[in-house]
């Protein structure tokens, strides 16, 4: 296949009417990539503080997320349990093996029976952290890693996300900046905006096509 | 298959117009896609300027395509992925087959991919004893129906709910699902139930890519159902089939284009899932595919660079042009007989398949300009359609009547002293021919028009004569 690579690159250069780039031209493009400058950010992707939190909540609810706000991590287990009860869901859930999630006093809720790890096909409920969240479209940003298997985001019908208010950014670009600080690009980054949906029957939108039917966010004031 | 034939475009039209189910489906486009896009765009005051930014970013990526593709390869490889370059559709098919064979694959799940359609991957895999399973609901429906997609993002949009009910009953009865479901939710649940185990059973998951990112070596899919994510997560091997023009430099660059994509496509602010895949499962990961392959196809695209058609390579396959096209809205996607349909298809298909078999497509346009006005990448689709008409004429593809007719008109139009009187005589002749009813039922060489409707008879003098009379002699020169 290396022949194909050379042919394609040569064909591109021919068509663009130039040969291989000079060292200077390459250096210029490398600088552009390193600078990874943001282009125009719309107004809804700017702002700070409470306004951004409120925008996130409004946008996430528009795409059929539900949100419960709690005052601290001690309140998370009861918020999770009450959501499960409200939807007649079992207390058995698979939870991401994440250190911060592990600090939550889950034992305070007798309903909950948590197993840490990746999801298998029988799990009905998954509990995960998020790497971040973006207010402009109510989007959760998930980064894969040993603390967050990707299967938790997609295979169970109910996805519960425990999010810290301080994680909510105005724009996608702010999350990319945080991701760069944290090291190399994770194997999988999932931007999740509401539960799974399809428009493939009669061009009307129905929730719960292949991914989760419900996406519930427990938002912790920190 | 009846439809998969671009030369048959004209013959397909009467069938499409008489297809009651298709009429019902197409009647939803304005109230669905078009209205939702309008609402999303109105909710984003910067949308117009973001279109300019998107165009600039894509132009930059295309002008430096060799650099960004090589950078993508380097970073993808560093993350443990394998990049396969394919000049032709056959190269791409063989690369995929080799990977499948190495994995001893019996079944592959597939996320939605138009490039997979372009290389006719499913029939090729079947011929090699590998079973492809489409997992996008729309793709699954048309796979059961053994039909090609009729829309690039809503492949089964030509099917009514009742047709889906019949298809599911026919194909799922053998799985013990004997009840004909009529509620959309029940149909979706049934597909979910049937497909879920397939993800786990698949040896290989194949997806397309909306974008590649040079900076990180990632491929991106944008979906709503989550099927693409299950496909790329649960197969032992993940293969991405994509094309050279999909590469963008950085995460920031792609963010700008993502702000345009969903709003233009479905009228959502953002699709439910935008997923970035970078290499295979890492040693510390608890899930993910063991192998990650990206097959990058050219298939003639590189030769469009540096030509008028380079602008077409900005296309992000949102489908807005076809949703807003009066021709597409009338005849639907299958009529085109090509993989890519609607205005973007009528520009891209002649480039991929050759103008000789596709010359009807650029002709099937009134140049109303609605496609260009909604294209998030500001591709001048009418201009490019016109360019194909020119090429079709220049290379002698047009039929004799059309060619000689245009040549004769061009000769005459360049002789003003003859053109004026000649067209006046013609106008009077036509007025006389239609003197009784004000219209003409049959005209020689014009049956393409008069078979469908009467030709209105001229009621007065020619435009030039009227113009000259109204504005005085000087104004007449403006139109010469």
Provide a descriptive summary of the structure in words:
The complex is a heterodimer of chains A (222) and B (480). With 222 residues, chain A is of the alpha/beta class. Chain A has two domains: 1-35, no CATH class; 47-220, 3-Layer(aba) Sandwich (Rossmann fold). Chain A has seven helices and twelve strands. Chain A has helices spanning 2-15, 23-35, 49-62, 76-86, 99-102, 151-154, 172-181, and strands at residues 66-70, 92-95, 113-116, 125-128, 132-134, 139-143, 158-164, 168-169, 188-192, 197-201, 204-207, 214-220. A six-stranded parallel beta sheet of chain A has the order 1-12-7-4-2-3, with helices on both faces. A four-stranded mixed beta sheet of chain A has the order 8-5-6-9. In chain A, strand 10 (197-201) and strand 11 form a beta hairpin. The two termini of chain B are 49 Å apart. Chain B has helices at 9-18, 20-26, 30-42, 47-63, 65-78, 89-102, 114-118, 121-127, 137-145, 161-172, 184-201, 227-234, 251-265, 320-323, 326-331, 342-353, 355-358, 360-363, 370-374, 381-394, 400-413, 416-433, 447-450, 463-471, 473-476, and strands at residues 82-86, 107-110, 131-134, 204-207, 211-213, 218-223, 237-243, 247-248, 273-277, 291-297, 439-440, 455-456. Chain B is globular, with a radius of gyration of 26 Å. In chain B, helix 4 (47-63) packs across helix 13 (251-265), helix 10 packs across helix 11 and helix 16 runs parallel beside helix 20 (381-394). Chain B has 480 residues and is an alpha/beta fold. Helix content of chain B is 51%, strand content 11%. Chain B has three domains: 44-299, NagB/RpiA/CoA transferase-like (Rossmann fold, 3-Layer(aba) Sandwich), CATH 3.40.50; 316-394, no CATH class; 409-479, no CATH class. In chain B, strand 5 (211-213) and strand 6 form a beta hairpin. Chain B has a six-stranded parallel beta sheet with strand order 1-10-7-4-2-3, sandwiched between helices. In chain B, strands 8-5-6-9 form a four-stranded mixed beta sheet. Chain B is built from 25 helices and twelve strands. Chains A and B meet through helix 1, helix 2, helix 6, helix 7 and strand 9 of A and helix 4, helix 5, strand 1, helix 9 and helix 11 of B.
């Amino acid at each position: 296949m290396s022949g194909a690579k050379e042919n394609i690159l040569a064909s591109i250069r021919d068509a663009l009417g130039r040969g291989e780039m000079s060292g200077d031209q390459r250096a210029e493009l490398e600088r552009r990539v390193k600078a990874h400058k943001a282009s125009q950010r719309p107004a809804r992707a700017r702002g700070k503080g409470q306004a951004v939190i409120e925008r996130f909540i409004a946008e996430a609810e528009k795409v059929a997320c539900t949100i419960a706000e709690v005052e601290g991590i001690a309140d998370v287990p009861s918020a999770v349990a009450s959501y499960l009860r409200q939807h007649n869901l079992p207390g058995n859930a698979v939870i991401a093996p994440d250190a911060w999630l592990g600090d939550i006093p889950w034992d305070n809720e007798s309903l909950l029976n948590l197993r840490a790890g990746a999801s298998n096909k029988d799990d009905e409920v998954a509990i995960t952290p998020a790497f971040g969240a973006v207010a402009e479209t109510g989007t959760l940003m998930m980064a894969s890693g040993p603390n967050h298997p990707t299967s938790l985001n997609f295979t169970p019908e109910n996805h519960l996300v425990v999010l810290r208010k301080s994680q909510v950014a105005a724009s996608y670009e702010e999350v990319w900046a945080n991701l760069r600080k944290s090291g190399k690009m994770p194997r999988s980054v999932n931007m999740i905006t509401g539960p799974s949906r399809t428009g493939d029957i009669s061009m009307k939108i129905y929730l719960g096509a292949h991914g989760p039917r419900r996406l519930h966010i427990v938002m912790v004031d920190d | 298959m009846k439809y998969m034939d671009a030369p048959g475009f004209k013959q397909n039209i009467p069938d499409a117009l008489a297809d009651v189910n298709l009429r019902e489906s197409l009647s939803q486009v304005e109230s669905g896609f078009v209205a939702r896009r309008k609402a999303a765009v109105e909710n984003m005051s910067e949308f117009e300027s973001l279109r300019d930014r998107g165009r600039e970013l894509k132009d930059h990526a295309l002008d430096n395509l060799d650099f960004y593709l090589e950078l993508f390869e380097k970073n993808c490889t560093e993350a443990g992925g394998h990049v396969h370059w394919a000049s032709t559709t056959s190269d791409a098919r063989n690369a995929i087959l080799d990977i499948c064979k190495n994995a001893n694959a019996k079944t592959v799940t597939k996320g939605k991919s138009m490039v997979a359609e372009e290389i006719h991957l499913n029939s090729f895999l079947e011929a090699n004893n590998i079973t492809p399973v489409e997992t996008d609901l729309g793709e699954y429906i048309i796979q059961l129906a053994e039909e090609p997609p009729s829309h690039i993002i809503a492949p089964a949009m030509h099917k009514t709910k009742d047709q889906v009910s019949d298809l599911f009953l026919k194909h799922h009865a053998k799985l013990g699902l004997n009840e004909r479901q009529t509620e959309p939710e029940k149909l979706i649940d049934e597909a979910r139930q049937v497909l879920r185990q397939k993800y786990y059973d698949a040896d290989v998951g194949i997806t397309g890519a909306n974008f590649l990112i040079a900076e990180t070596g990632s491929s991106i899919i944008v979906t709503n159902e989550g099927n693409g994510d299950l496909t790329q997560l649960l197969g032992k091997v993940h293969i991405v089939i994509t094309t050279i023009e999909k590469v963008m430099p950085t995460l920031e660059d792609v963010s700008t284009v993502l702000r345009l994509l969903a709003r233009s496509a479905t009228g959502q602010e953002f699709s439910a899932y935008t997923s970035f895949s970078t290499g295979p499962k890492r040693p510390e990961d608890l899930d993910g595919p063991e192998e990650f392959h990206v097959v990058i196809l050219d298939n003639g695209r590189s030769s469009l660079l540096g030509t008028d058609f380079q602008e077409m390579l900005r296309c992000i396959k949102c489908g807005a042009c076809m949703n807003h096209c009066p021709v597409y809205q009338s005849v639907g996607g299958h009529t085109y007989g090509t993989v890519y349909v609607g205005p973007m298809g009528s520009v891209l298909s002649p480039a991929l398949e050759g103008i000789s078999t596709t010359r009807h497509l650029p002709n099937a346009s009134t140049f109303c300009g609605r496609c260009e006005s909604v294209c998030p990448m500001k591709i001048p689709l009418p201009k490019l359609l016109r360019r194909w008409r020119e090429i079709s004429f220049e290379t002698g593809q047009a039929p004799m009547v059309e060619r000689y007719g245009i040549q004769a008109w061009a000769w005459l139009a360049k002789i003003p002293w003859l053109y004026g009187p000649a067209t006046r005589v013609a106008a009077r002749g036509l007025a006389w021919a239609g003197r009784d009813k004000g219209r003409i039922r049959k005209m020689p060489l014009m049956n393409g028009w008069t078979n469908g409707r009467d030709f209105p008879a001229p009621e007065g003098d020619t435009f030039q004569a009227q113009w000259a009379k109204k504005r005085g002699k000087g104004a007449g020169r403006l139109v010469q």
